[in-house]
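User: Before I run my own analysis I want an independent prediction to cross-check against. Here's the chain; please return only the structure tokens and, at the end, one sentence I can use as a sanity check.
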Amino acid sequence: VSAIGIVLVVSGVAWPALGDLKNPNAPSNAAHGSVTVIADWAPPSQDAAPAGGRPGGEQRCAFQGADVPCFRPGSSWSPSRQCYVSLRDPQPPKSDPVWQGNRTGQIFDCLSPMVPLRHLPPFWAAQPPAAGPPPIELAESATDSMQLQPFRIGITPPAGSTGLVALPTWLWVDAPADNQWASRSEPKTVTATAGPVSVTARAYVAKTVWDMGDGTSVTCTGPGQRYRKRDGAQPSPSCGHVYYEASDRRLGQAYSVSARSYWVVDWAETGIGNGQSGQFRFELESTTQVRIGELQLLVRR
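Assistant: Structure tokens:
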């Protein structure tokens, strides 16, 4: 799999889970909007084949008859070697006897699960002993952990007020959290890791399409700009609209306005793997109502 596209349409609710592999207690970095997720997954491979199976595809790893986790951060369980295997970094020089005269392949560390943890002799292997999970599954896990949600609509006139025909209406993303809005230059970033495989997902909003309820739509590539009283009757410099008819003949005497944000998630695999990458696309929608009236002047002589 080199690329994949997923289209999900969600109205007014949080985007549902793409996967179950997540750690809700993972540490976060609020300054950069990033979080690291460690996914509980047992890697299938010839050397790290499961000792048994469980319902739903869950795999079992055992040491001396007792269950052990199928992975530790940065390493995967190898039943044939009875240890947690990880790629040695940095790799020793080719003159080191551990290479056994080989010029290709890689050197791996072996960590026993016994307490206290015991390092076993490193070994050479032509192929990684644990291939790790399919990167697409980790990408889904990373995206799921973002808990992306629709944003709250900012609009003039505000709720409870009535705007006027021919006056500019401003549109913006109101007080967005990093799971409600993210730009291409500052995406929301999550890394999911299982054994030796890591996938980093970067999510951002490509555009927002506003359905104004009067038969017209407005497409904005940014979050818009919040209206201030000092802006007066000026049009929005980034995202706005003008109504030319009052809303008194509409259902509820108001225009129904919806804002659909088009999210893009670019993901790429790192670590032991083949550098797979892909992209998810989906939409989240917010709605509100706006009242527009008409001001008539009577001129007397």
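Sanity check: DSSP finds one helix and 21 strands in the chain.
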